Amino acid sequence: MFYDPTIVGSWPTLAARLDCDAVLVRWAATEPTLAGLSSVDDLLAVWVEGSPEDRRDVVLAALVRLAAVDGSRDDDALLLTLHLLSGLAHTMARQLADLSHDILAVVVGELACQIRRYPWQRRPRAIAANLRAETRRAVLAELRPSSRYHRDRVELLTATGDIGRIASATAYEEGEDLDVVDLLQWAVRSGIDAEDVALLIDTECSRDRQHQRADQQVAAAHGITTRTLYRRRNRTLTALRGVAPQYLAAVA
Question: What is the pTM of this model?
Fold first, then answer.
């Protein structure tokens, strides 16, 4: 939960009001999946770590339907959902901390928008994963816009080679709206060699920053020949193209 009341309001106050007005009981009349959850404590017992993931997803789906503009447009449901997803918001804010001095407020604001317009009829499952992916994509589009025609306006891939802390990325130009940062992290977790991904990042950074002998300089820095650089780069690009559909399916 957000225990800072300046983010989305006081959690104790919200919880007390929901219990006092028997709001969850009222919600259960229109959302049968909430039946049996008559208090905030009952709901949190479902939400705690270790509870079945499908049960949590069912509860979250019900709350999103209540909060969505094409659902019940319930403000309390929106606030409760934001509090339940506070961990998601804090994690994303840490990952994108370099993009804004007030990144948590940006993330929470966008998350609220995504909940309000969530396409619950079309995407009824994996609610948290979908909200995370769409919120991240929207925040990056707002704070880190990209354009293939204006290279000076596009931030560069980091040259550190630290895949776990990539803070910016360019966009693939293959027709899919991919979050490259998340894709690269997911790819490494899925088994693609982290050193090959780091080499790819270094190559792309160097090509953005200088136009002569860029690949040779990267190859020398990594202690390999240019031919080896191209071979590993092509191997990594092929692997990334191969896992991209799996990544899109995972976040869909």
Answer: 0.60
